[in-house]
Amino acid sequence: MSTVADAFATRHGAAPTGVWFAPGRVNLIGEHTDYNDGFVLPFALPHRAVVAAAPATGGRSRVRSVQEPGAAVEFSAASVVPGEVPGWAAYVAGTCWAFREAGYPVGEVELELDSDVPVGAGLSSSAAVECAVGVALAGLAGADVDPTTLARIARRAENEFVGAPTGGMDQMASMHGRAGRLVFLDTRGDTVELVPFDLPAHDLELLVVDTRAPHAHASGEYGARRADCEAAAAALGVPALRDAGPDDLPRIADERIRRRARHIVTENARVVETVRLLSGGADPRAIGPLLDASHTSMRDDFEITVPHVDVAVEAARDGGATGARMTGGGFGGCVIALVEADGAAAVTASVREAFAQRGWAEPVVFPGTPSDGAGRLA
Ligand code: GLA
């Protein structure tokens, strides 16, 4: 994606100071556990947000996006506050704000953004932008900021500037991802362990199926699930559901809240078991049942799936997948399927056929390849 540097040079008559990137992510397992102080196991995708940037003159920052033709969005990075910049540029301005709030120097910037992370597919296109801007700001300031600090700055932009009440998984995956590795994150304390995930060595592949399901009420429902989890923790008298186990569940009187808690408690256990298997050198096929169980739990207990993703998961299994589940926040988005490398075509055909039968738009299927986290390109 050198086009973004070219676009910058064309507009400014000079090359940018640097070009930085940050990837989207897929979560292998561990859904909605991140805001419960729990465990997640995502990896960074090859799909990236890329920014070309240079210091600006004239006391204003100007940001443009290849995906958003039109005039540049202007704001002052030195003084911008939440509520001032709407739309896509809020991810950029919000990161400037959060970077400043963290005590780092922020000068005004000329910034050109490009991204091939699908938007609205649950692949963290927004975290990719925030993290790319974060590494760019650190680079421009000559500040040595560690990846976890940058991830926290990016998350603060998402939570407090954009106003989405997410956990911290997406930004940590975007910052810490590594080719061939999963990012095992303990969100209590943000400790990271990289776990080998070499599927080609086992003649396996992880397919990502973007169902293109229309996102309905995703942000409201996300907040509602958070509230349910907080109610469950309060009912149990624990700081977070991370601290609860299966034996605690009968103590939750409300049936819905109990099911929400059961998803989090069992999902945390599934993440830990997945890591145990993969770190111990097990055949990755062994995680198939955990992926399946995660999906069932999201569908029945946490109630965050929609017909498009349930159909995609079932069709993937019918087509021969070893395990399949929805990935990401839910209410649409993507499904992942662990498949034999020589069975990928059959799984893809099975999902396409199931969608065609229902008159749904054709899903987009691509291999999920664990890739490097944020950094400098040029
Ligand atoms: C979204 C949020 C994450 C996480 C997932 C669900 O991607 O941004 O913080 O909660 O949903 O696992």
Whole-number total of structural domains: 2
SSE pattern, N- to C-terminal: HEEEEEHEHHHEEEHHHHEEHEE
- Count of DSSP E strands? 13
Count of helix runs: 10
User: Largest sheet, order of strands side by side?
Assistant: 5-4-6-3-1-13
Q: What's the Cα radius of gyration? A: 21 Å
Unreliably modeled segments: none
Q: How far is the N terminus from the C terminus?
A: 11 Å
Q: Strand count, sense and closure of the main sheet?
A: 6 strands, mixed
Helix- and strand-based class? alpha+beta
Given the C-alpha coordinates, what overall shape results?
A: globular
CATH architecture of the largest domain: 2-Layer Sandwich
Listed once per kind, the bound small molecules are: alpha-D-galactopyranose
Average pLDDT level = 96
CATH fold descriptor of the largest domain: Ribosomal Protein S5, domain 2
Which range does the strand content fall in?
Answer: 15-25%
Helical content class: 25-40%
Keywords: ATP-binding, Carbohydrate metabolism, Galactose metabolism, Kinase, Nucleotide-binding, Transferase
InterPro entries: Galactokinase (IPR000705), Galactokinase_CS (IPR019741), GalKase_N (IPR019539), GHMP_kinase_C_dom (IPR013750), GHMP_kinase_C_sf (IPR036554), GHMP_kinase_N_dom (IPR006204), GHMP_knse_ATP-bd_CS (IPR006203), Mevalonate/galactokinase (IPR006206)
EC number: 2.7.1.6
Domain GHMP kinase C-terminal: 283-356
